[in-house]
């Protein structure tokens, strides 16, 4: 009886290990980072619960279709982050991730640690390293967004710097810092002319002509002034070839000012924003309207519009989420639901089809193969040009999937008995931190009333 039990335990443990990678259940989070490499939507960092740290790197496979509420997350066991960070920025250079800034905690001591501000992840070897950066001193920042041009230069505008980590107070900046990934140098640009107002939590997107479009977020007119939301019509443009700023007043529909929202740039020059919330120094913030809007950057004067069906089947008001564009789909992950003030479920993502301008529930990797020039009969069936070899690899994948699925199902049944007690306990822990200043806005200003 003893040996069979040991054998059973051994098999069980192996299956448990496979299971933990295959049916990975990621902690809910906000203020995280997400990037797409190699048909994988990678998620990492973010704020979960100050006494519950997570360093995992995991992904959603975008090479297959899925329903938005039936997700399979996969853990990359070697990809664990070297630090705990949230409100940082992550920029993709080929298949290398540059992770910069944010609030950073040392994994060993669990103390704030700003000794290294840039980390690099090499996707092909699944390893994190600390690049040796020359040039100017890297400024510590939170709540900024980096964008990369096609020469491998990462531009990082302003952001927030917490000077008191107990009260999370600090100042906003309006400098432009450049990380050259080719030469591994860091430069704080000296720019003359119209420098924009210091800000953070803005949207940043680089157009194909090399102009970076910034708008939204929080502003501070001078170092002693209160923080306020920036008008969504106030567009700040940075020309990466001339290294010059200019401003533009956008026209079109009224879009509420907001922070902690997401933006994606479509191949045809529209910036689609989603979610966010109002600024609050006191903790009483509200949702914003509309939840989704589009900025047309093809016009000489950029123009806002609200797609007519964008409220239909819309997700709830969310902030602190991320958005990524993959073919025709904008994929919204995690964040906090403003109605319930709870973290979004990790069991679902939200999908917006940028071609049909509708929220949808099914993701399909080949959606953009739909020939939209044919008469649309409403069936919306993609024209599939699946080759024979693709079909056979599909059935192989289905077979494999079914095999793994059966194994997973059996182990899940075993595991359920083991985790039921644990789950009951941890349900209580899944509430968002309502009182912690970490979830609250950066730099509640001393002079606020
Ligand atoms: C804010 O800036 C100061 C001065 O550069 C730096 O010492 C400090 O670490 C920064 N704070 C954070 C939270 O990055
Ligand atoms: C930081 O903020 C806390 C809480 O408001 C305050 O008690 C403390 O004195 C501040 N520290 C400094 C160095 O200003
Ligand atoms: C679909 O979109 C991706 C990226 O936007 C592009 O690389 C690919 O060529 C497109 N496929 C078709 C069939 O249009
Ligand atoms: C759609 O199909 C028509 C007819 O075959 C073709 O002329 C057109 O270029 C196609 N459009 C796209 C976007 O593929
Ligand atoms: C954070 O995690 C700790 C430890 O699991 C738990 O006691 C606490 O209730 C959690 N806090 C919140 C706000 O979820």
What this model shows, in words?
This protein has a five-stranded mixed beta sheet, with no helix packed on it. A five-stranded mixed beta sheet has the order 24-28-27-26-25, with no helix packed on it. Helix 1 packs across helix 2. The chain is globular. 35% of the residues are buried. It has two domains: 355 residues, 6 Propeller (Neuraminidase), CATH 2.120.10.80; 50 residues. The protein has two helices and 36 strands. The chain is mainly β. The structure holds 2-acetamido-2-deoxy-beta-D-glucopyranose (5 copies). One 2-acetamido-2-deoxy-beta-D-glucopyranose binds next to loops.
SSE topology sketch:
Layout: H1 2-22, E1 33-37, E2 40-44, E3 57-61, E4 66-67, E5 73-75, E6 83-86, E7 89-93, E8 96-100, E9 103-106, E10 118-122, E11 127-129, E12 134-135, E13 146-148, E14 153-164, E15 169-180, E16 185-188, E17 198-200, E18 203-206, E19 211-215, E20 218-220, E21 228-229, E22 234-239, E23 244-249, E24 251-252, E25 262-265, E26 270-274, E27 292-296, E28 303-305, E29 318-319, E30 322-326, E31 329-333, E32 336-337, E33 342-343, E34 350-353, E35 358-360, E36 362-363, H2 388-426
Parallel strand pairs: 12-16, 24-28
Antiparallel strand pairs: 1-2, 2-3, 3-5, 4-36, 6-9, 7-8, 8-10, 10-11, 13-14, 14-15, 15-16, 17-20, 18-19, 19-22, 20-21, 22-23, 25-26, 26-27, 27-28, 29-32, 30-31, 31-34, 32-33, 34-35
Helix pairs in contact: 1-2
Bound molecules: 2-acetamido-2-deoxy-beta-D-glucopyranose (NAG) (5 copies).
Pfam family, one: Kelch_KLHDC2_KLHL20_DRC7
Region (Disordered): 365-389, 429-449
InterPro entries: Kelch-typ_b-propeller (IPR015915)
């Amino acid at each position: 009886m003893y040996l069979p039990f040991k054998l059973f335990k051994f098999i069980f443990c192996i299956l448990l290990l496979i299971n933990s990678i295959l049916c990975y259940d990621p902690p809910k989070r906000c203020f995280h980072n997400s990037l797409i490499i190699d048909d994988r939507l990678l998620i990492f960092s973010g704020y979960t619960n100050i006494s519950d740290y997570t360093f995992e790197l995991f992904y959603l496979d975008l090479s297959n279709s899925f329903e938005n509420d039936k997700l399979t997350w996969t853990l990359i066991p070697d990809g664990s982050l070297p630090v705990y960070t949230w409100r940082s920025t992550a920029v993709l250079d080929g298949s290398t991730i540059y992770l910069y800034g944010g609030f950073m905690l040392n994994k060993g001591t669990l103390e704030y640690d700003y000794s290294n501000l840039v980390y690099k992840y090499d996707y092909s070897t699944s390893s994190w390293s600390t690049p040796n950066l020359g040039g100017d001193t890297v400024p510590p920042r939170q709540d900024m967004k980096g964008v990369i041009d096609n020469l491998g230069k990462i531009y990082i505008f302003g952001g927030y710097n917490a000077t008191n980590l107990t009260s999370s107070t600090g100042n906003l900046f309006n400098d432009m810092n450049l990380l050259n990934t080719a030469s591994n140098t860091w430069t704080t640009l000296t720019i003359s002319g119209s420098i924009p107002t210091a800000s953070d939590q803005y949207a940043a997107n680089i157009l194909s002509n090399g102009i970076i479009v910034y708008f939204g977020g929080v502003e501070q007119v001078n170092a002693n002034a209160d923080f306020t939301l920036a008008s969504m019509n106030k567009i700040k443009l940075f020309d990466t070839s001339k290294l010059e700023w200019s401003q533009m007043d956008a026209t079109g529909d009224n879009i509420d000012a907001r922070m902690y929202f997401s933006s994606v740039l479509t191949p045809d020059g529209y910036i689609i924003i989603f979610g966010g919330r109002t600024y609050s120094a006191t903790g009483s913030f509200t949702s914003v309207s509309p939840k989704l809007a589009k900025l047309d950057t093809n016009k000489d004067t950029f123009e806002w519009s609200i797609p007519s069906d964008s409220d239909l089947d819309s997700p709830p008001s969310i902030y602190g989420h991320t958005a990524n564009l993959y073919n025709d789909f904008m994929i919204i992950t995690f964040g906090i639901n403003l109605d319930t003030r709870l973290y979004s479920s990790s069991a679902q993502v939200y999908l917006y089809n940028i071609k049909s301008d509708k929220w949808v529930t099914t993701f399909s990797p080949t959606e953009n193969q739909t020939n939209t020039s044919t008469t649309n009969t409403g069936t919306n069936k993609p024209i599939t040009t699946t080759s024979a070899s693709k079909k056979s690899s599909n059935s192989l994948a289905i077979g494999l999937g079914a095999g793994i699925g059966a194994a997973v199902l059996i182990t899940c049944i075993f595991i359920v008995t083991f985790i039921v007690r644990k789950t009951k306990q941890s349900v209580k822990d899944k509430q968002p931190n309502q009182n912690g200043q970490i979830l609250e806005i950066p730099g509640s200003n001393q002079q606020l009333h």
